[in-house]
Amino acid sequence: MRYSLLFGKTRKEVSKDEISLNAQLLIRGGFVDKLAAGIYTYLPLGLRVLKKIENIIREEMNGLGAQEILMPALQPKDIWEQTGRWESLDVLYKLKSRQDKEYALGSTQEEVVTPLVKKFISSYKDLPLYLYQIQTKFRDEPRAKSGILRGREFGMKDLYSFHTTQEDLENFYQKAIDVYLRLFTKCGLKAYKIEASGGTFTKKFSHEFAVITPAGEDEMIYCDACGFAQNTEVAKVSEKDPCPTCGKELKKATDVEAGNIFDLQTKYTDAFDFKYQDKDGQLKPVLMGCYGIGTSRLLGTIVEASHDDKGIIWPASVAPYLVHLVALGSDPEIAKQAEKVYQDMQQAGIEVLYDDRDEQTGVKLNDADLIGIPCRVIISKKTLSEKSAELKARAEEKAELVKLDKLVNQLKICSQ
Amino acid sequence: MRYSLLFGKTRKEVSKDEISLNAQLLIRGGFVDKLAAGIYTYLPLGLRVLKKIENIIREEMNGLGAQEILMPALQPKDIWEQTGRWESLDVLYKLKSRQDKEYALGSTQEEVVTPLVKKFISSYKDLPLYLYQIQTKFRDEPRAKSGILRGREFGMKDLYSFHTTQEDLENFYQKAIDVYLRLFTKCGLKAYKIEASGGTFTKKFSHEFAVITPAGEDEMIYCDACGFAQNTEVAKVSEKDPCPTCGKELKKATDVEAGNIFDLQTKYTDAFDFKYQDKDGQLKPVLMGCYGIGTSRLLGTIVEASHDDKGIIWPASVAPYLVHLVALGSDPEIAKQAEKVYQDMQQAGIEVLYDDRDEQTGVKLNDADLIGIPCRVIISKKTLSEKSAELKARAEEKAELVKLDKLVNQLKICSQ
């Protein structure tokens, strides 16, 4: 993509009411635009990152044997009354049609998925079953001051599992934990599994996945060595204690919750009278788990966890492009060589953003740092005098000269 | 995918209030589930079709030079007041937050995209610009009786173009017409461009794209030979006249509107005072066009246009799978050979749904016809006695025997 043509360039100013770091960087970098508090538009750069995150999640969900569906956001009142959450879930947006039909906007989807599965599943032979979706959700947040970490409209992956026995549920739950940890790693994050105190809808156990960020909403005590972690609010250990699991050193850090999973037991299957027939023909309650990850929240978490004072530092797996190609200087030979490199990279299947603008060196380099694409490639009079380009990783200080005829191959290796 | 594991199998019964043919077939085939009138869940089979349609559209939009973004559905009241549509657009769902903030649910997005583009674009140098999104939209439909053809919640691709001159707008508008016609062809549909009388928001010209369906909502006079078409309500010719364009025969048919495009002139750019600076530094109004296709509506249109009394007949380009592999008979050798064919097809990258259930022949064949996957492959005692499988196109009556060792190669050619 030529940066000159890209919609959503960098901006100097962010409105003063935008106090969250993730939104400030994402707005300045041209990734998102704020429509209203907690409500953002994804510009081309931001949408590319969001889709990469979604695809990493999708791959892991499919690997779990989960099937993707897409449930509606507009949900009739009666299903929410059936679980009592029409009244109790305070973040639920509610609306009336012209004909006075009442609807909720889905902030979570147990009320839809449970009766849906009940329509199709009646026997132990059809269980377990795992369904997920990646869908826009809505929450009537009283304060929306965390940028895309806590939006009034946001993207979310929600997975629901249905089981015949507690043992089967717990086995799957454990698999989901492993998949979640791997998935966060794939997104360039180090996540810690935390036993959670439970949200509005927990009967038994639940876990959160916490990512260390400098300005996190929560605080945890954790162990680098074995992954032990507890929220400081409920922690039974302090920084001074040895790790209760492995005996090594404990640390304290602020963190962001990047996902959560719940053992729902029969809370929702009871509400919808969803039972299965076992081998002996007896009707038994279906057990259920749910597993959420906010996709837009994850995008914001990555920014909170991975940036410096110049801008964002995208992990390669979710970066909007792998390479930021920058032509410096007005000599036509520079533009010609940069154009050739741009074409060669595209032919080689390397995702490249090409800053072809007629702008000052400082502007271009500052923009590259702000946007945060993993590999910066500079073509200038100086590099061309060595028949080279300058290659620098966003996360590192050191740059190297790479011969033009070796450049694409070297980058191709990075992109694999 | 093994059909035994697939969530969303065929159903015999459809509730009596579901009177539209598209929803009846899609529900019976296990593609969608109805949550409420005009509100559907996409089951795994249906979501696969929807995504294929989206990707065909995406490819064509990118080919036009349009950039993909994602705008919010939750939209503050003030932007809708600015265009006067808070009051005038009767299909707008409206809601209030706990803090009495008022929002509309987007049914179209001129109110979001126009001020968004205004934030970034100020000079003639930055125009033209084309932005699109594929997003869930909402309409407070008084009657929702057309299945997924006219949902209260539905998928839509909306493209917006911004121009400095009427000539430039008209050139792009013509390109969009060509792209739309090609895109419908790619989805297996023959669409006719109809000059439209204009909806609520037309100042100058607009066009609809009509697809002939047996039970269409509209009626048109058209010419097979040259593509001339007019809605009968406004047509200046009748069936008895020769085609005014090419002189050939005119026909009459019912049709479904599968897309529409509008020259918006400066209606919305004026409302948001969006001007650009021309070469001489003068401020001039930005011209705008918009171009819509309902993605879920298109899915329903394909079903309306392509089915028989046994079920759906998916065009290969949007089919959930290319091959429906059916093992008939309880002999273990049949299951073994079918399993091998299934594995071979997957290895060859052929999308295959494998009916591995222990069901009667009639059930399996009826399900295959209902689901409507383009190629049906039967493995039975009879076919195995010839070291073959039976291959039959869903759209045709005739079947042929294909040697097992040639099967995958033959199907691979079909899938390319």
What does this structure look like?
The structure is a homodimer. The model of chain A is unreliable at about 200 (pLDDT under 50). In chain A, strands 3, 7, 8, 9, 10, 11, 12, 13 and 16 form a 9-stranded mixed beta sheet that branches. In chain A, a hairpin with a 6-residue loop joins strand 11 and strand 12. Chain A contains 12 helices and 23 strands. With about 425 residues, the first copy, chain A, is of the alpha+beta class. The radius of gyration of chain A is 24 Å and the shape is elongated. Chain A has 2 domains: about 20-310, Bira Bifunctional Protein, Domain 2 (BirA Bifunctional Protein, domain 2, 2-Layer Sandwich), CATH 3.30.930.10; about 320-415, Rossmann fold. The interface between A and B is large, with 47 and 47 residues.
Let me know the number of strands of chain A. Answer: 23
Count of individual helical segments of chain A: 12
- In angstroms, what separates the terminal alpha carbons of chain A? 20 Å
Nearest-integer average pLDDT of chain A: 95
Give the helix proportion of chain A (percent range).
Answer: 25-40%
The CATH superfamily of the largest domain in chain A appears as: Bira Bifunctional Protein, Domain 2
What is the SS-derived class of chain A?
alpha+beta
Task: Tell me the quaternary state.
Answer: homodimer
By CATH, the topology of the largest domain in chain A is BirA Bifunctional Protein, domain 2
> Judging by the overall fold, what is the CATH architecture of the largest domain in chain A?
2-Layer Sandwich
Which ranges of chain A are low-confidence, i.e. pLDDT below 50, for 5 or more consecutive residues?
198-202
Chain pair forming the biggest interface? A-B, 47 and 47 residues
Question: What is the total domain count of chain A?
Answer: 2
